[in-house]
Amino acid sequence: MAELQTFLTYDRQAEEAAQLYCAVVPGSRITKVLRYGAGAPNLAGTVMTVAFELAGRPCVALNAGQDFGFSNGISLAVLCDTQAELDRVWDGLLEGGGKPIACGWLTDRFGVAWQVTPKMLPELLADPDPAKAQRAFTAMAGMVKLDIDAIRAAAEGGVPA
Fold first, then answer.
1. Which domain range does residue 95 map to?
2. What is the mean pLDDT of the chain?
């Protein structure tokens, strides 16, 4: 059976990025670091790839020695159970120069796009009551970092406590 693995290419920041992601996303860990050998395109002994798991999903970060760049057209999504978890992940990914965008999206200091989202949001947006779903969407669309209580309150037609 085929497997899907996220592969991220950096100039020279693969290990730093993997360490940040594993520190911020629950259930994550670095599993292997491979280094360039003699005669490789990068300096022998420097990090070539970092294999890691993000929330249990396999990923690899590669130091390619040139800037491939990232795009907001592809993002990594972290679904959070609580506001405290969402706040911790959001703040951690912004640390060191990340930039908030809108609607729970941000780019980290390496240029990788992320969506930091409450787990309950897709359910609210698909609510069988179209008015409730629209209120949840409108609340979310007006936020930068998402606020779980405010989205729930808006969906119910009220304001957060």
1. 75-155
2. 94
pLDDT at residue 161 is higher than 50: no
Give a yes or no: residue 146 inside a domain: yes
The Cα 63–Cα 50 span in angstroms is 9
Question: Is residue 5 a contact partner of residue 60, using CB atoms and an 8 Å limit?
Answer: yes
Kindly state the tokens that stand for 149: 């209580």
Pair 44, 82 in one domain? no
Looking at the domain assignment, is residue 68 inside a domain? Answer: no
Q: How far apart are CA 139 and CA 53, in angstroms?
A: 32
Distance from the Cα of residue 9 to its chain's centroid = 15
The whole-angstrom distance between residue 79's C-alpha and the CA centroid of its chain comes to: 9
> What's the CA gap between 47 and 62, in Å, rounded?
8
CA 93, CA 126: separation in Å to the nearest integer?
28
* Two tokens, residue 16: 């730093």
Residue of 126, 120, 128 whose CA lies nearest to 146: 120
Are 120 and 152 in contact, with CB atoms under 8 Å apart?
yes
Residues 99, 56: Cα–Cα separation, whole Å: 26
Specify the pLDDT at position 160: 53
